[in-house]
Amino acid sequence: MKYMTGKAKMMVTGIALGTVAAGGMAALIAAGKVKVNGHPVTLGDKMDPDYDKVMIDGKTVRIVRKRQYTYIMLHKPRGYLTTRADDRGRKTVMELVADVPAMLRPVGRLDKDSEGLLLMTDDGAFINMLTHPSGGVGKLYRVTVNPRATEQQIIEMSSGVVLDDGVKTQPCVIHVVVDEPGRSVLEITLHEGRNRQIRRMCSAVGLQVVRLRRSAEGPVKLGMLQPGEYRELKKSEINALRNAAMKSTAKGTARPATTAKRPGPLKKRSNSD
After folding, report:
1. The predicted structure's pLDDT at residue 36
2. Catalytic residue among 48, 52, 57, 111
3. DSSP character for 266?
4. What is the pTM of this model?
5. Nearest-CA neighbor of 74 among 97, 104, 95, 108?
6. Contact at 8 Å (CB) between 176 and 271?
């Protein structure tokens, strides 16, 4: 016989034909009135809801399985709004996942002119975990700007700049990928998500964003997914995102706010855009 887990006990408690209160389950088990496959159980025993038969006080109960959520990553193309509907009839990301049998919502957003990785799910707790201000899961963006970014401009953005609403951004990590006359390609990692933040950061130091693509969120990378395509997240990716969010939350709670340190020498990479 398999044994009953704490989670299974809670499920049985919650659905025991509407007759068993949560506090009474332990007493029923102690009295030998809870059986799995005909055998009395004890506290701590486990069971498999797919195969095992549970009876409480002689009555068979149905195990309510945990709701199955859907988690996907979409390569959002430029020109689509990150919203469920638009009263002006503009294209939204929901059109790209219309065949998914779930009430998906975007996890955060990418503005209409931006592209790249967008997570979507029907798990509200997951959305709250990743978008909560204390979460701070890092998001990696590849940003093409003109004119060419100077070292001083990058230092200012890395250290935190005051946006047009008077709010100063948190420090961020910036790598220079392409550095040539007339333009620069930067990789920027943010741990916050203000509205059109990268565009506003660049504008604050005199740079114009020509192209902006999110290529990773925490441990999940866009990879070879093409614009307009989506795929389901692997269980390992979902767990990795949860772990990253919890670690960031713990770090943010334990560490008081400090003044940003000046970044060291710029790091350059010889990648193509």
Report:
1. 86
2. 111
3. P
4. 0.70
5. 97
6. no
pLDDT (tens digit, 9 = 90+) per residue, 65-83? 667 899 999 999 999 999 9
Question: What does residue 249 show for φ and ψ, rounded to 5 degrees?
Answer: -65, -45
C-beta neighbour count of 211 within 10 angstroms: 15
Q: CB atoms < 10 A from the CB of 150, how many? A: 13
Cβ neighbours for 64, distance < 8 A, ≥ 6 positions apart: 11, 14, 15
Residue corresponding to tokens 């047009």: 164
Active site residue 111: yes
CATH for the stretch 6-60: 3.10.290.10
Domain-by-domain residue ranges, the chain?
Answer: 6-60, 71-254
The highest-level CATH class for domain 71-254 is: alpha beta
**Run of H or E residues at 235:** helix 235-254
Q: Is 106 exposed, middle or buried (0-12, 13-18, 19+ CB in 10 A)?
A: buried
Q: pLDDT for 106-138, tens place per residue?
A: 999 899 999 999 999 999 999 999 987 765 789
